[in-house]
């Protein structure tokens, strides 16, 4: 785990006013954890392989990897299954209510392992989502330690009713990404945010914020409305964020982690958003709360302009 993760207890907020947990299918992905004065830029690692790579063919099945991509700590790729007869209609079977997965049919992915330069690599967070059909899935892995600039990625697949594993080898080559350390401070009454870090890559936009002070000073709807077991950090989860560039392009919220810092009245926030299509000139971080009693009958965003950051990129 990173130092930030060790110091914080995390809750994940996804989308517009919705708190949710992400489903991680550990049985397939393997063990591990299932799903902050001047501007400085630093080159980092980012690799992209848009070509298609295929496995060995067995029992009529071939597996393909497309769009393998990494940005030092995040690795993503799309896995597809083609061919085969009398096989399962889907590459990955869902769990039944008793928590078990049935592998009675042929061609179901049972286990997936990753090797970096010949050595099995452990990732701290692993997730996947369905692609365009039931034979296509997109995998995402997150690592604590940076991946090498250049390496060979080997993917080993164990498939039901097939004796030997499938192997796919993919050469990965690094590019660059941008890291900003703005060290900006914004305040609302006795509460302030420090913008510590912004990371930009083709995979994600990550923003690290540290909050200090009294949350009760913030215009949050649930402050003081809960019982004795309701902590102040729970009120902070009512705050959302919009991220835009100088052209007004909005990023998609992929999850916000809220946590307690080491000191009293210290809060850690890690914002995870979709990537920008191209490197922007400026980034604006816009905190807001939701008015659930608006005249339109729909939640209305009320922006906290005092806590808004405008960050130059280049």
- Rg of Cα set: 22 Å
User: Average pLDDT value?
Assistant: 77
Number of strands: 21
Strand content: 35-45%
Write the element-wise H/E pattern from the N-terminal end onward.
Answer: HEHEEEEEEEEEEEEEEHEEEEEE
- Class of secondary structure makeup: mainly beta
Summed up, the helix count is: 3
Main pleated sheet: 7 strands, antiparallel
Intertermini distance: 31 Å
Instruction: Specify the overall morphology.
Output: elongated
The percentage helix is under 10%
Q: Uncertain runs with pLDDT below 50, 5 residues or more?
A: 1-28, 30-49, 223-230
Written account of the structure:
It is built from 3 helices and 21 strands. The relative contact order is 0.17. The protein has helices at 3-7, 26-29, 232-236; strands at 11-13, 47-49, 53-54, 61-70, 74-83, 109-116, 119-120, 125-130, 136-142, 150-159, 166-173, 178-180, 184-188, 191-200, 205-213, 240-245, 253-260, 266-273, 282-291, 300-303, 309-312. The protein is mostly beta strands and 314 residues long. Strands 1, 12, 13, 14, 15, 17 and 18 form a 7-stranded antiparallel sheet that branches. A hairpin with a 6-residue loop joins β3 and β4 (61-70). Helices cover 4% and strands 43% of the residues. The chain is elongated.
Key structural traits:
single chain; 314 residues; mainly beta; seven-stranded antiparallel β-sheet; 3 helices; 4% helix; disordered N terminus
Produce the secondary structure layout:
Elements lengths: L2 H5 L3 E3 L12 H4 L17 E3 L3 E2 L6 E10 L3 E10 L25 E8 L2 E2 L4 E6 L5 E7 L7 E10 L6 E8 L4 E3 L3 E5 L2 E10 L4 E9 L18 H5 L3 E6 L7 E8 L5 E8 L8 E10 L8 E4 L5 E4 L2
